[in-house]
Each structure stands twice: as structure tokens, then as C-alpha cells.
Probable thiopurine S-methyltransferase isoform X1
Amino acid sequence: MMVITKVGFARALQRCVTVANASKFLRCQTFKLFSTRSKICSSPLVKQYSTTMASTGDRIKYWSNRWDEGSIGFHKDEVHPMLIKYFDKLFPSGKTGRVFVPLCGKTLDMRWLAGKDISVVGLDAVRMSLEQFFSDQNLQYTEEKAPQLAENGALLKSSDNKIHLYLGDMLNFSPDVEGTFEAVWDRASLVALNREDVSKYVSIIKSLLKPGGRCLLEVMDYDVSIMEDLGDLSTRPPPPHPMYEAELKQLYEPEFTVQYLDRCERLLAGKDIHLQVFLLTKQ
Ligand SMILES: C[S@@+](CC[C@H](N)C(=O)[O-])C[C@H]1O[C@@H](n2cnc3c(N)ncnc32)[C@H](O)[C@@H]1O
């Protein structure tokens, strides 16, 4: 196991000429670091990532191509079993509140939550995902501009006003747009984002939850080296990027507690991986 010092890490990073190479390099180092959890507390990984932010257009292009091609294997034709199983953890007192669903795609989970008389706010950067949500669910909606999100931001509202879906880049979202929330259902966002966007994404989620608010979260955890025989790791997979419990703790603590809830096995590109579910609670 190689131990990476802060200086050594920065020098090595500078040697990576392109963003793709840097990204690949970081993923390899991430696995090496997190495979020995005791080393993570002193890791500068998250801060290093935040220095090379892409523009909104670059960030979204990959996903808009996937929606155009119908390459949306992440979408489930059922309500997520872990949301059903752990829903009560989001609202332990039984009193519900508003739920934010970041990077929502067209998940059926939003309809299920709204059926519990909960106001749901979703956000995705790809228009097709939001339009398909309403058409798949046979729901009428109206559309208005959302300049508080971005110049070309939009808000699609179900006619019963229970579901608000924002069209825009998550990195531009803030409590100024829709206030704060009692709960967040974060399925596969942290594993979908560019690594350099993770730190900012987490700071936005932290700001969106009220004190005592809870976030139910699903991420994937796998050893990137098992994917090496697939070829160029900068184009397939990741994403989904692996996200380890130690990295989650580094990102969310001490403002949040991070509680492991569950895990299950899955195949990704024919390889064994794990899905892990956590409950994050704001102090
Ligand atoms: C892995 S999918 C998860 C979808 C959804 N959570 C689900 O369970 O089906 C990632 C989604 O995030 C969207 N996305 C990626 N980057 C984004 C960003 N920066 N802002 C908003 N949406 C983004 C993509 O269009 C895609 O629909």
C-alpha cells in the first residue's frame, strides 16, 4: 500500500496532462487510499478535486447524450426498494415534510413520495428526463421560467402542485430557489457527478437541509481495479464512480452524522459491486 503525502499527491496530479488522465489517476489513487480506511482522515482528495470545475455545458453534455441515446440503465421501472424499506427513517416522528430529489431523472420514487402527501422537488439538467417523467406518469404539468436557478432555468409543476421539477445544473441550486427541506432522497447522485464537482454538490445538499433534516442516500462501492480489463476507465465505468463510507464521512462530518443502513450485491459491466445505503442526519 502506497501512502500518498499532500505534496506528493499534488506533484503527481500536476504530471497528469489532461483532465481525463487526472480523473483516471485520481480514481486509482482513491481506491488505494480508501482500501486502507485509517489513512483517509488526512487525505487532501476532496479539496484537490474542487480546483478544476467544468462549465455547466461540459458537465451536462455526457448526460444529455445518454438521455438522447436512451442509455439510461440507471432508471428503474419500480419504486426503489430501499426507499420503501427506509422511508420511516426520513421522518422518524411520523410527521412528514418536503423532500428534495437531486439528479432525479424520471424516477418513479417521486410519484410514490407525492402519493404520501409529500411535496416533492426534483432537479435534473436534462429536459428529456423531466418531460418523460410527466408523460410516463400520465401527469399534466405547466412550465415557467426559473431565473433564480439560472438564466435559462425552468420549473415544471404538476397540475396538483405536489411535484416541482427544476431543469438546471445542480451546481447552481441553492436554498434561494425553493427554500430548505426536511428530507433528501439521494439515489446515485454522488456516483454520477464528476469527481471535481462532489465537494460543491455536498455543500449545496448541506445547505438545503433544515437542522435535524435527513438524507437517505444510495451509493456504489467497488474496487476500480476490477474494471481495468474493460479498457479506458475515463469512458466506461465510471460513472458510476465508487463512493466509499470513509469518503462519505469525510465529506459530511461533522455537520452530519453518517449511519450505514444496508447493502446489496449488484453487477456492473459484468463485475460484482455493492450498493450501500446510508442515513445522513444534520446536527
Ligand atoms: C445516475 S442518474 C440518477 C437518476 C435518478 N436519481 C434515478 O434514481 O433514476 C444521474 C442523473 O443526473 C442527471 N445529472 C447529471 N449531472 C447533473 C447536474 N450537474 N445537474 C443536474 N442533473 C445532473 C443526469 O441527467 C441523470 O438523469
Notes: The longest strand covers residues 209-221. Confidence is low (pLDDT under 50) at residues 1-52. DSSP finds ten helices and nine strands in the chain. Residues 59, 63, 74-75, 103-105, 107, 123-126, 129, 169-171, 187-188, 192-193 surround S-adenosylmethionine (CB under 6 Å).
